[in-house]
Target: Outer membrane protein TolC
Amino acid sequence: MNVVSLTAALVLATAFSASGQTPMASTPTSLSQLLAEAGANNPQISAADHGARAARQVAPQMTTLPDPKLTYQQLSVGSPKPFAGYTNSDFAYIGVGASQELPYPGKLQARGAVAERDADTKVAEVEVTKTNIADSVKADYLQLAYLQQTLGILRQNEAVLDQLIQDATAHYQVGQGMQQDVLQAQMNRTKIVKEITMHHQQMGQIQAHLKGLLNRDQGSPDIATEDLVETPLNRSSDELLAMVKQNNPQIQVDASSIRKQDAQLASAKREGKPDFEVGYIYQNTDRKYRDYYMFTFDVRFPRKTRVNAEIAEATEKRSESQQTLNAHLQQQLAEVKGGYVKATSDAELLKEYREGLIPQSDAAYRATLNAYAFNREQFIHVLSYFTDLLSLRLEYAQTLVDHEAALAHLESLTGATLR
Model:
C-alpha cells in the first residue's frame, strides 16, 4: 500500500472538511441585492402596483355629481313638419333647457368612502405580492446556495474516492486486496457522479426560475450565491406571534377588507334615501307670443325591497370578511409557531452535527484510513466510514438550508428581519 497516496487522500479529505465548497467562477451575489432587484423589476409586482394606482382613481368618479343633461325641444302645431305653426300659433315653440340629478346628501361621500377602502385593499394586496415574490426569491437563493455548497462537497469527495480507487487497485494488483473492494469503490464513485449530474439539473431549473422572478434574460450569466452560514434566531416565539397581527401582509389585506365592508354597509343604508333632479327649460314661441319658462323638480324613491337586500348583502359580506380574517390569522399564527419550532430544532441538530456526529465520524474515518495504510484494516471499512462521513456532511448542509429557509419564511410571516 502506498502511504504517500493515502496521505494525499487524507489531505483532500481535510480540504472538503474545512470548506466543503468549490470556488465559483463568478462573483457571489448577496440575497439583499436580489431582493431589491426583484422589487424593482418583477412584472407581478409592477402589475399589482398599477392596479392599486388605478383603484385610487375610482373615488373621484364616485364622489362627482352625475353628468348634467342639456335638452332641446321643438313642438309643431297643425303639421308634423318641423316648425309648423311656429309663427301663427302660441302653442308651437322651440325649447332649450338643462337638468341635473342630485343624489341625497351624503350618498356620494359614502360611495367615495367605499372606493377609498377598496383602493386601500389593493395597496395592501401589493404588499402581499411583494412578500410572496420575496419569499420565492429567498427560497430559490437558499436552495441554490445549498446545491452549490453540496456540489463542492461531492466534487471533493469524488477526488478523494478516485485516490482511494487507485490505492485499492494497486493493493489488489500486489495481492493484498480483493477485486470486490475496487468494484465497491467504483460503485460509490458512480453514485457521486449521479448526484453531481442531478445537482446540475436542479441548479439549472432553479436558475431559470430565479431569473424569471428577477425579470432577467434567461441567457444571462448564472447567479452565484454567498456561502450558507447558520443565523441564530434571537426572537422568542411570543414576540414573533405578536408581530403577525401588526405586520403580516395577508392580515393587513383582510383588515382593509373589513373596513371596506363597513363603508359598503354605511353606503347601502344611505342608498335608501331619495334622490332628486332639477331642471329648467326656456320655450320660445316667436316674437309675437309670450315665451314659456318651466322649472321641474323630480324625486326618486328607492324601492325598499332592493335597499334592504343591499343592506343584508353588505352585512353578510362584512361577516364573511371578519371570519376570513380570523381564519387567516389562525393559519398564519400556526405557520409562525411551526416555523419557530422548525428553526429551533434545526439549530439544536446543527450543533449536534458540528460538535458530535461529524467530528466523531471524521476521526473514525481517519483512524481506519491510517490503519488501512499499514494493512491493519480492510478497505471495505475505510469505504464505509468514508460514505458515512459524506452522508453526515450532506445531511448537515440540508439541515442548514432548512433552518435558513424556516427563518426566511418567518420573516415573510412577521415582517421581522431575522437573517
Summary: Residues 11-25 have pLDDT under 50 and may be disordered. The domain at 3-414 is CATH 1.20.1600.10 (Outer membrane efflux proteins (OEP)).
